[in-house]
Write the structure tokens for this entry.
Amino acid sequence: MAEQSTLSSSVTGTSMDVSTVGGSLKQFGDGAVRVRVMGTPRSGTNLAKYLVERYLKVPVVFDEGFWKHGIFPALMSGRDLQYGELPIVVMSKDPVTQLLSWYRLARNDGIFKPSGYLSSFLTGPFEIRQDFTEPKQMEYRYRNPSDYWNQFYFAMEALRRTGAPVHFVCYEELASFPASSLNSISRFLDLSSPFDAGSAVAMPQHALGASNDIDQAGSSTENQTPFDPARAELASALARIGWRNAMTILRDIDDDVMSATGRAGFRKMCRDAAGPAAMLRSLVGFW
């Protein structure tokens, strides 16, 4: 009988049996393995790659086998589920901040189909493609942006439940407390020397350009906007989006998916964070 493989998980604090997950499990950590980073667009995948490669010295894979922004595919070998043989770090932003970021991105004719007003963007069909400016790219359509957020992270949590090595990281935690997040990732990867949670971590001075496994990795340059961790603050997003639009998002987001990303109690957090600016934004019109 084949020996069962186990993987130490920082999510559960126990060993997970991955013998039923297709593909041989490669040795973790210490420069001997790569790690796959996945997440929806603008969820912090480029920041995670930058920090993991710089401080943990582990190469990051984005698009080898499947797209980092795509719903995780059911890769099968007979009856065995495949996950690409690499541990997976999943980045996420809270749904309110995330959808506001997508709306901004959708106005530049990139991977999202261009959209007009925010209110119609939040409720209408949502299309995503690897690049809307290039032909012959894979496309996806969802009922609305919240449906994409739900589907993406539900699939990643479902993959984690099979025993695959999947670790969720909140962007707001990575941006505000990078050393603690790197410590958690290093323990998930079972590195022989976990990253010191008390270490100083130098964040990029400017926003990182998009990158993939083919083109040159994204870098922080003066031509790009300054990197601002405050952009991940929920209160700031609520003030921009308005409470009415925030309620539209919260109505469509599933509680179990929010819990899977580490955001149990997020609805109450929104109510507590919604200040006068968010309420006023809902009264002065739609955008």
